[in-house]
């Protein structure tokens, strides 16, 4: 059974596709992102090695605040449409966008995305990365990883999104990611409330 060959690398709620964009589109996105003021990721007083910028909604890891941000730039609309079609989502529901630049030596540690978000759809630019997953078992951790090729897209939902942690090992060459997210019920509730969420 051929599907068994791939079974170890896939879990429910994780999907992946290479070549969602062309090399020309990739180069244009990298140039556009290069013109934006990404800044070092901050977490409760610590400064990370990666640079980020959010649109639509911003979860501030420094103070736990969740609030509206500048609208998603118009030049990202075609990419948003493509990733929505890939993930089987309505592109209007992909209301949050996170741009990240990882310089050599930067990665992202084990985490689950914040509960104010639901679906996560990410596009990789520039270099390959390893997206790692782990889940606690009675005896330790169950783990696996998939390579993310430049110009590829992945979608995290369901079990992959909620039961597994993910992270990206530090890379040797610069990589960018463009991550779109939907809001969860919790995120939508705080949207109509005080714009603050812990
Ligand atoms: O760089 C990526 O593709 C993943 C980043 C990530 O997991 C996150 O920002 O929550
Ligand atoms: Fe994440």
TrEMBL record:
InterPro entries: AlkB-like, AlkB-like_sf, ALKBH4, Oxoglu/Fe-dep_dioxygenase_dom. GO terms for biological process: demethylation. SUPFAM superfamilies: Clavaminate synthase-like (SSF51197). Pfam families: 2OG-FeII_Oxy_2. Gene3D superfamilies: Alpha-ketoglutarate-dependent dioxygenase AlkB-like. GO terms for molecular function: demethylase activity; oxidoreductase activity. Residues 93-184 form the Fe2OG dioxygenase domain. This is Fe2OG dioxygenase domain-containing protein. It comes from Sphingobium quisquiliarum P25. The lineage of its organism: Bacteria, Pseudomonadati, Pseudomonadota, Alphaproteobacteria, Sphingomonadales.
